[in-house]
Amino acid sequence: MGSAERGGAGRDSAAHDGAGRDSLSVRFDAKIMRRYDKEGPRYTSYPSARQFHGRLAPDAYEKAARGSPGALQGSPLSIYAHLPFCPSPCFYCGCNKVVTHQMGRVDAYVQHLLEEISLRSRYFDRSRTVEQLHFGGGTPTFLPKESLTALVDRLGREFRLTGEDSRDYSIEIDPRGTDEGVLRVLAELGFNRVSLGVQDFDADVQRAVNRVQPAAAVAGVYDAARMLGFRSINFDLIYGLPRQTLATFGATLDQVIAMRPDRLAVYGYAHMPQLFKAQRKIQSSDLPNATTRLALLQLTVDRLCGAGYVYIGMDHFALPEDGLARALRSGTLHRSFQGYTTHANRDLVSVGVSAIGQVGDLYVQNRKSVPEYEAAVASGDLPSFQGVHIGVDDAIRKDVIGQIMCHGTVNIGAVESRHGIVFDRYFARELGPLQSLEADGLIERSPGLIALTAVGRLLMRNVAMTFDAYIAAAAPKPMSRVI
Length: 483
Hints:
Elements: H1 3-6, H2 30-35, H3 60-67, H4 69-73, E1 77-83, E2 85-86, E3 98-99, H5 103-121, E4 130-137, H6 145-158, E5 168-173, H7 180-188, E6 193-199, H8 203-208, H9 215-227, E7 232-239, H10 246-259, E8 263-268, H11 290-306, E9 310-313, E10 316-318, H12 323-330, E11 334-336, E12 339-341, E13 347-351, E14 356-359, E15 362-366, H13 370-378, E16 384-389, H14 392-407, E17 409-411, H15 412-419, H16 423-426, H17 431-439, E18 443-446, E19 449-452, H18 460-465
Parallel strand pairs: 1-4, 1-13, 2-3, 4-5, 5-6, 6-7, 7-8
Antiparallel strand pairs: 8-10, 9-10, 11-12, 14-15, 15-16, 17-19, 18-19
Helix pairs in contact: 5-6, 5-13, 10-11
């Protein structure tokens, strides 16, 4: 086994929890990992999207936006735009995407997206600066320059975009269709962060998932982004892909480490062909078995932490000087539908098909099919169709789960003070499961504090599930595996 199972990995001596323990170390315990490998929410929200329903009042969004603490305080905003189009299918992908070469279809969608931006903006005071902006997909860079420019222009007209260096304006990039010219356009539009879909550099794996992109092509895009001054570059990788081995993925990790992106998101492939048609192209016999999959995760943790990356949580790693790592050390890290972020407690205005946003106490999602989405916008209505309000109990559990996912500790006194509860009394039913987690070495408990151990940080979702009131009663909808 690697060094992480024998000892610690990813140690950052600058960070300590309330007990003086180094809280950023991680330790891979294969036996414990196997025992806790199960399905669970990713906790980009609580309640999770599994609790969304279609019974929202017609004026739910307006009331939530008007009554949001952010509206009352004039706090900054986050905006997400979903651009679903791709030129070809990647067989592993589980995103809401549309594979097409019909640019008329793309143009029609962009026109409806522009209209939705205007519809949404009426609920938000223009004095609220947009500190965070993200274009996701799909392949946002599949859109023509004119369409991307039109979207940013409309956002700038309806909302208050900023040119401050502190802004976090990011876009997802397919290196196969991106060059210096495209990156220059993105920089001119105000984007200062890019995320490159890499997945794996091995040619055999790439052929198996229908995404062939030589490492040299990725390196060219990476170098151009550095030259143009993008503040942060992220690579997406996936372990558990067909034909992937420890040797081939180790070689990919070596190449990635040599390039030195600021952040890495390393996801475990979720094979759910019953939900995602493209995944039916993948032969189950080509997938790594459970033992190899676990070893791939351990290899990733060992190799990246050994190269100086900080384990942020879930699937994310960052260099020590990156904003995410600094936020982790300072206790200001936050988690939302945008994933891990340094922008806490922001109303999230989301536009586009299937996009999920949050305003005040309301999570809300747009219609999931392009025709239904466009029909709603064309009628002058918000294309939202489901969501959920955050109740009093939800808010308490959201607070606890957020601390687990972002800080690796729960400050019991702070929770009691914020919500007017006695922690052990309120969570009496959770005390038994917490004792089991403690016995297995995932957490340590002391007066006023629950802290994830170095082993537990790799299983934070399992710890968070202890406080999820919906897990036991949830409908049998598939979720991603913890490992």
